[in-house]
Amino acid sequence: MDEILTIQDVAARLKLAERTVYAMVAEREMPAFKVRGQWRIRRSDFERWLDEVALSGQSSAPVRREPRIAAAAAISDIDVEDRSDAVADLPVAALSERRSQKGLHQRFIDALGERVKSHSPITQKPIELDLVPPLPSRVRVYLFNATRPPGGRPLGEHKIQLIMPGQRRGQRGSLDHSDGRIVFLVGYAAEEDVFILWDAGLYSDFAWSRNVQVKAETIVEASAGKLAIQQRHLRPSGAASVTETLIATPATRLVDALQRRVQLTRERMVQD
Predict the structure, then answer these.
(1) Residue 46 neighbours by CB distance under 10 Å
(2) DSSP string spanning 103-142?
(3) Cβ–Cβ under 8 Å, residues 104 and 145
(4) Full-model pTM
(5) Is the dihedral of CA 21, 18, 146, 174 positive or negative?
(6) Lowest-pLDDT range, 33-42, 94-103, 131-140?
(7) How far apart are CA 128 and CA 122, in angstroms?
(8) Could you state, in order of their start, the residue ranges of all structural domains in the chain?
(9) Is 9 left (phi over 0), alpha (psi -120 to 50) or beta?
(10) Is the four-CA dihedral 210, 212, 213, 219 of positive or negative sign?
């Protein structure tokens, strides 16, 4: 019989925080199912997923894999310790710490502190906030985990994946700019406690799970306490190329970064 693992079991094997594994499961980046409202992972599915991660993240040197541990009726401390050794050479470091959507929104609200007058439920995506001056009074925030992917992107980049509420594979998506709210497209690098603010006006009619990147050095600069600026050259579908200016900021300077983001977007629109 296939052994069933809990979030805690998987977190111990990967040496990641439980909330990171929970977020990966909730975002369907790891195969799982629910039993009475609790996430569970079949051991065979987990080990197959490990193989896929190893394959996508390996370098020219082969990834060492040790023999699988025979399934047992219950998880023991020895099982956990042995399995951790077996995945030690996998690119687990590439699996960045992640937050649930609720956790992302709560961190954003906490960083703004008393400047938040009110907000929609933190389980709602996107989240809408009413703020006090000098911040925009009414905003809509699309907030994503910014992660170092195990494969598909250079190791010097973090990315977010644009998937809109209700958007399915093969469908086009767009940000909602209605109701007079200013829209922010934001990533959060949890390990560094850094927010990244892209120019939301440049992202429309995009494919499901579109990647949006930021350089690692930009995040490092922000983690040192600076408002880090980076330029990216975009070529929107059916339009001329455009230069995007993004901002990375430590959570302690999120208010400054939001103001700067509004200013940069307005300057770009005037130039257009």
Answers:
(1) 21
(2) HHHHHHHHHHGGGEEEE--TTSSSEEEEE-TTS-SEEEEE
(3) yes
(4) 0.67
(5) positive
(6) 94-103
(7) 9
(8) 4-94, 101-271
(9) alpha
(10) negative
Q: Can you tell me whether residue 38 is helix, strand or coil? A: strand
Section 204-220 average pLDDT: 90
What residue type is 191 in one-letter code? E
Map residue 259 onto helix, strand or coil: helix
**Helix/strand/coil (H/E/C) assignment for every residue in 161-216:** EECCCCCCCCCEECCCCCCCCEEEEEEEECCCCEEEEECHHHCCCEECCEEEEEEH
Look up residue 269 and give its amino acid: M
Identity (one letter) of the amino acid at 132?
V
Q: Could you give the angle at the alpha carbon of 57 between the alpha carbons of 38 and 223, nearest 5°?
A: 80
Q: Answer for the pair 145, 188: CB distance below 8 angstroms, yes or no.
A: yes
- Residue 224: how many other CB atoms lie within 10 Å: 11
Distance CA 187, CA 230 (A): 14
Tokens of 155: 């190791």
